[in-house]
Amino acid sequence: MRRKDREITDMQEIAKILDACKTASIAMIDEGTPYVVPLSYGYELSDNQLVLYFHSAKEGRKIGVLKNNNQVCFTVFDEGEPLHAEIPCNSGYYYSSIIGNGTVEFIEQAEEKTYALGKMFAHQSGRKVVFTEEQAATVCVFKVISTDFTGKRKPK
To answer: What is the CATH number of the domain that holds 81?
Structure first.
């Protein structure tokens, strides 16, 4: 990281960013062409490992691309407030972000699918909901596992 003064290494601070944000952008490669999709997520963070949980339709471009190449890059960010400087080139945003690389694993087991959906719903809504196996069977659920991620912040 070029700007070490903005790097976040404390896992509690990284968790605060993940808690505050609701959308992660997942970047993948589709036959040599970059493809990025914003998705709602849930997460777990422990022992310097981040697991992001996602759900989607069972088929489509994203699912096809991920089944062909399960390596992804992701970012989660809160752009915060604008910074308007006297010199326009010094303008920008106060922000917090997480960026990383990871591997996609599709979740097929009903128990793990319902667990992942519960984590996502709790993160998105702040409410605990127990999903049924029947509900989980209607969607594709996958996770991104990462041990290669960094936090960055430009504080106010």
So the answer is: 2.30.110.10
Q: Is residue 118's pLDDT more than 80? A: yes
85, pLDDT greater than 70:
yes
| Rounded Cα–Cα distance for residues 115 and 144 (Å) | 15
Q: Distance of CA 37 to CAs 26, 55, 110, 116, Å?
A: 5, 12, 25, 19
Length in residues, the chain:
156
What residue numbers bound the domain in which 55 lies?
Answer: 4-154
Strand bridging mode 92-93 / 82-83: antiparallel
Task: Quote the tokens at residue 76.
Answer: 């989660």
**pLDDT at position 1:** 66
- Asked if 130 contacts 142 with a C-beta cutoff of 8 angstroms, the reply is no
